[in-house]
């Protein structure tokens, strides 16, 4: 079920793994990124999701301000809505990959477990393994 479909992202409910899927299609500016992540929270809330899958293979880099916002605002809010595990498929672009891994390293949310993967199958398997 597609919740949001934009030039830069598609957000959908993946019933087979019971997760919100964010499939990034390219660069998103700050407004696009933040509104998309907020839409993911909306879907997670509606579906009572405990899992998210960020397919970032085609994502562009994010600014330090957006990384800080994601760590200080978005991740705590998505966790408050019940999400407990987020799997990220790392970007193909070296710059975007560094941007994402740097941002994830800064988050210290004990109730939210995050993991990074090179492939979508590994990310899905990790989410499913949580039960």
How would you describe the overall organization of this protein?
The structure is a single chain. The chain has 131 residues and is α/β, with parallel strands linked by helices. It is built from 4 helices and 6 strands, in the order βββαβαβαβα. The protein has a 6-stranded mixed beta sheet with strand order 1-2-3-4-5-6, sandwiched between helices. Helix 3 (94-105) links the parallel strand 5 and strand 6. Helix 1 packs parallel to helix 2 (64-80) and helix 2 (64-80) crosses helix 3. The two termini are 22 Å apart. The relative contact order is 0.16. The mean pLDDT is 92.
Describe the structure using short key phrases:
131 residues, alpha/beta, 6-stranded mixed beta sheet, 4 helices, 6 strands
């Amino acid at each position: 079920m597609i919740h949001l479909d934009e030039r830069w992202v598609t957000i959908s409910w993946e019933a087979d793994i019971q997760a919100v899927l964010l499939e990034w299609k390219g660069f998103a500016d700050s407004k696009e990124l933040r509104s998309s992540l907020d839409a993911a929270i909306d879907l997670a809330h509606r579906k009572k999701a405990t899992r998210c899958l960020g397919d970032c293979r085609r994502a562009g880099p994010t600014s330090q301000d957006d990384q800080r916002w994601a760590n200080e605002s978005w991740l705590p809010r998505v966790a408050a809505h019940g999400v407990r595990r987020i799997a990220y498929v790392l970007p193909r672009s070296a710059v975007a990959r560094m941007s994402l891994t740097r941002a994830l390293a800064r988050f210290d949310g004990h109730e939210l477990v995050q993991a990074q993967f090179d492939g979508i199958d590994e990310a899905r398997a990790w989410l499913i393994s949580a039960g």
